[in-house]
Amino acid sequence: MIRLSTIEKVYRTAKIETIALKDVNLHIKRGEFLSIMGPSGCGKSTMLNIMGLLDQPSQGVVEIDSEHVAKFSDRKLARLRNAMIGFVFQSYHLINDLSVVDNVEIPLLYRSMSGSSRRKLALEALDKVGLNARTRHFPSQLSGGQRQRVAIARAIVGSPQIILADEPTGNLDSVMGAEIMDILNKLNQEEQTTIVMVTHDEILASQTQRIIRLFDGSQVN
C-alpha cells in the first residue's frame, strides 16, 4: 500500500542544511497497522507528511498503492490524497464555528456529490466513532476525547484505504487514549484500513503489528 525507497529529506537555508530523513526504506502492506517511534525531531512527522503526499522527498521514490507519485501534478496529488488518505492530528484541527457534522463533511466538499449524500456519509462516520448524539454540537462543547473522535470521523468519512495518525492520543489522558486506540484497531480489523501512527507511547505502539523506530532521521531497526 505504501512504499518508501531510499528516501532522503533535506531542509536548506542560506546558511544551514538539516537532514530530516536519510536512506529510509519502508514497505507497508495493505491492511497493516504500523507505529513509528523515536525522540522529538527525529523525522517522524516528516516521514508521515511524505507518505501523505503533503511533502516531497529530496530524493527517493514514493509509491502509494503501486503508483509512483513523483511526476503527479499538484491537482492529481490532491485527488489521490482526498480519495485514499485520511489524516488524524494531535491537535484535532477542527473548525470551531462549524458543527460536528459539518466538520466531518469537509473532505467530501471536494468530491462531486449532493449535500444529502455528504450528510448521510458524515452521520455514518460519526456513528462509527460513537458520536451520533453529538452531531449538532460545536467543538468547544466537546471533551478532548470527543474532539479526537470527530477528527477520526472526518478522516474516515470518504472511506480512505490509508489513515495517517500523528500522535492521535498525545493530548489525551490514558483512558481517552485507550478509547481512540480501540477505534483505530476496529477500523484496521473490521475494514482492513491501513494505519500508520506516530506515537511516543510504548504501550500503544505495542498494540500495533509492527514498530518502526527512527533516530536522527534514520531507521534503527
Protein topology:
Elements lengths: L1 E11 L4 E12 L4 E5 L6 H8 L7 E6 L2 E2 L5 H11 E5 L10 H6 L9 H14 L15 H13 L5 E5 L7 H18 L2 E5 L3 H4 L4 E6 L2 E2 L2
Parallel strand pairs: 3-8, 3-9, 6-7, 7-8
Antiparallel strand pairs: 1-2, 1-4, 4-5, 9-10
**CATH uppermost class:** Alpha Beta
Biggest sheet strand order reads: 6-7-8-3-9-10
CATH topology: Rossmann fold
Characterize the quaternary organization of these chains: single chain
Q: Would you report the number of β strands?
A: 10
Radius of gyration: 17 Å
- Identify the CATH homologous superfamily: P-loop containing nucleotide triphosphate hydrolases
Mean of residue pLDDT?
94
Can you put this structure into words, describing what you see?
The protein is of the alpha/beta class and 221 residues long. It has seven helices and ten strands. The protein has one domain: P-loop containing nucleotide triphosphate hydrolases (Rossmann fold, 3-Layer(aba) Sandwich).
Features:
221 residues, 4-stranded antiparallel beta sheet, single chain, 10 strands, globular, 6-stranded mixed beta sheet, alpha/beta, Rossmann fold
In brief:
33% of the residues lie in helices and 27% in strands. It is α/β, with parallel strands linked by helices.
